[in-house]
From TrEMBL:
Keyword Transcription regulation attributed: no
Cofactor: [2Fe-2S] cluster; FAD
Assigned keywords, A-Z: 2Fe-2S, FAD, Flavoprotein, Iron, Iron-sulfur, Membrane, Metal-binding, Oxidoreductase, Transmembrane, Transmembrane helix
Classification via Gene3D superfamilies: Nucleotide-binding domain of ferredoxin-NADP reductase (FNR) module, Translation factors
Listed name of the protein: FAD-binding oxidoreductase
SUPFAM superfamilies: Ferredoxin reductase-like, C-terminal NADP-linked domain, Riboflavin synthase domain-like
Residues spanning the membrane: 27-47, 53-77, 98-118, 138-157, 169-187, 199-220, 332-353
Ranges of residues in domain FAD-binding FR-type: 226-325
Length: 461
């Protein structure tokens, strides 16, 4: 028992040191917690005046939230070589979640500082507010506070704004860079750390510029690197009334695992910031070719017919960890694709077929109509050649095609499609829109599948 525990600790520690694979969510949480907590421990060691428990707690929260805000930049910067920031889908979840908490906390920040002072002094509230708002040394803080509130709200309601995603993203990044600079300016002006003040201010500015450097890298340096390894468009083919099959040829030593995705730009320059994430539908065996299934949705995906074979395509990646490697021990594989979620799922299925995987494999594939189902011939071929593979087509709208389940991929559909596999010891791979993934995960709760065996990719950040 003790040696088992020892082995586990050693394995985790060696992963922490080497991090050759993607770090687990648990490790990432611990590492991020350490990054925001350790500076407080150092500050607490310094011999500074004790200003009472309330001020102490507030200073702790201010520090943690400020460092969390700084971490937002590398989290969103697509840093595939820095393992701590390489799990982009986890990063984006945390970026959204932490962003909201940071917004709420800093929105309350002036209140948390001024209210106790006002309560203790018994001064006129109106005068205290006017005094605070007009104090010159608080100006940067006040501008940062207003900008932060507006920018956080515009992030929460981004889908309701009449602005294209790429333009919103540029404003989002630029706005928060300004907020971070103003907030750092504010804390270095009003923060009091006694005799250590100037050193601590230097640390704040260093942390601020380091965090912004990640974004500058993404916008200024990375495009140069990407332009040196551009792919060529081999073909673009319409494969359903709203889906395209895009094939690229890679000219560099690009490797990936089935199920991963890349950011693609088909602009004439790698510096034009119009990169879109798309899952790779092919397997490494098809390299140097890479294929993608792209569904028309908005401005960019509706303009794919303008692409010209032979043109350069900039590829940033691979990213994502909905890959097969982590689950060798499962007894069966359940693949679930909703709509264009078939892109990474067909990549995984092709990899399983190439490996001649003997385990039962089930594919549940949903679309609005049967005419949107892709790769039907290939799927039929796999049913004949793989040891134990079955496809269940699920159509929301009625169709004349006989072998399909009408409705959504819900609890009943899952139950009927998975009757003959050991679901509780299976690995599940699921991809689709946010709503589809959320509902299908809800439907999967009826089975006792360990959470670690359910892998999913949502087709939006
Ligand atoms: C990890 C991942 C893998 C994906 N794989 C595929 C795939 O294989 N096939 C496919 O058809 N679609 C895929 N998508 C979705 C695809 O990226 C969007 O449909 C596409 O970017 C929409 O661009 P648009 O200009 O046509 O539409 P818009 O109307 O501009 O955008 C529609 C929505 O797509 C998302 N989006 C748009 N641009 C970006 C961007 N630059 N970065 C991130 N999200 C963006 C936003 O949520 C936006 O609200 C994937 C998305 C993610 C996050």
């Amino acid at each position: 028992m003790a040696s088992l525990l020892e082995n586990r600790i050693l394995a985790s520690f060696s992963q922490f040191i080497k991090q050759k694979t993607y770090p687990t969510q648990g490790w990432l949480t611990i590492q991020f917690a350490l990054l925001v907590l350790i500076p407080y421990v150092f500050l607490a060691i310094l011999p500074m005046d004790n200003k009472g428990i309330y001020v102490e707690i507030l200073s702790f929260l201010n520090l943690v939230m400020m460092l969390s805000m700084m971490l937002q930049f590398p989290l969103a910067a697509r840093l595939k070589h820095a393992k701590l920031f390489s799990r982009i889908d986890w990063n984006m979840q945390q970026h959204k979640r932490m962003g909201k908490w940071i917004g709420v906390f800093f929105f309350l920040h002036p209140l948390l500082i001024l209210l106790p002072k006002w309560l203790l002094s018994g001064a006129d509230l109106r005068l205290s507010i006017i005094e605070s708002i007009t104090a010159p040394r608080l100006l940067t803080g006040i501008i940062a506070w207003v900008l932060l509130a507006v920018w956080v709200l515009s992030s929460i309601y981004k889908n309701k704004l009449p602005i294209a995603y790429d333009k919103w993203k540029l404003w989002h990044t630029a706005g928060f860079m300004v907020v971070l600079i103003l907030a750092t300016w504010h804390i270095t002006q009003v923060g009091s750390h006694g005799q250590f003040g100037q050193y601590i201010n230097l640390l704040w500015w260093s942390a601020c510029f380091l965090s912004l450097a990640f974004t500058v890298y993404g916008y200024a340096i990375k495009p140069k690197l990407l332009s040196q390894h551009a792919c060529t468009l081999v073909s673009r083919e319409k494969v359903s009334f709203n889906d395209w099959l895009i094939t690229l040829k890679n000219h560099s030593a690009f490797t990936f695992q089935p199920g991963q995705f890349v950011w693609l730009s088909t602009k004439t320059s790698a510096y034009e910031l119009d990169y879109h994430p798309f899952s790779i539908a092919s397997t490494p065996r098809s390299l140097p070719n890479l294929s993608f299934v792209i569904r028309e949705l908005g401005d960019y995906t509706r303009s794919l017919e303008q692409l010209k074979p032979g043109q350069a395509v900039f590829v940033d990646g691979p990213y994502g960890n909905m890959t097969l490697a982590a689950n060798d021990a499962s007894n069966a594989i359940i693949l679930i694709a909703s709509g264009v979620g078939i892109a990474p799922i067909i990549g995984l299925l092709r990899a399983l077929a190439e490996a001649n995987d003997p385990r039962p494999i089930r594919l549940i594939y949903g679309n609005r109509t049967y005419s949107q189902m892709l790769f039907t011939e290939e799927l039929a071929h796999f049913e004949n050649t793989l040891n134990n593979f079955k496809t269940r087509f699920v159509c929301y709208l009625p169709s004349t095609f006989a072998i399909y389940y009408q409705g959504f991929i819900d609890q009943t559909c899952l139950q009927s499609a998975l009757q003959d596999v050991p679901v509780e010891t299976s690995s599940v791979y699921l991809c689709g829109s946010d709503i589809a993934v959320k509902n299908i995960r809800k439907g999967l709760k009826q089975f006792p599948i360990p959470v670690r065996n359910i892998h999913f990719e949502q087709l939006s950040f």
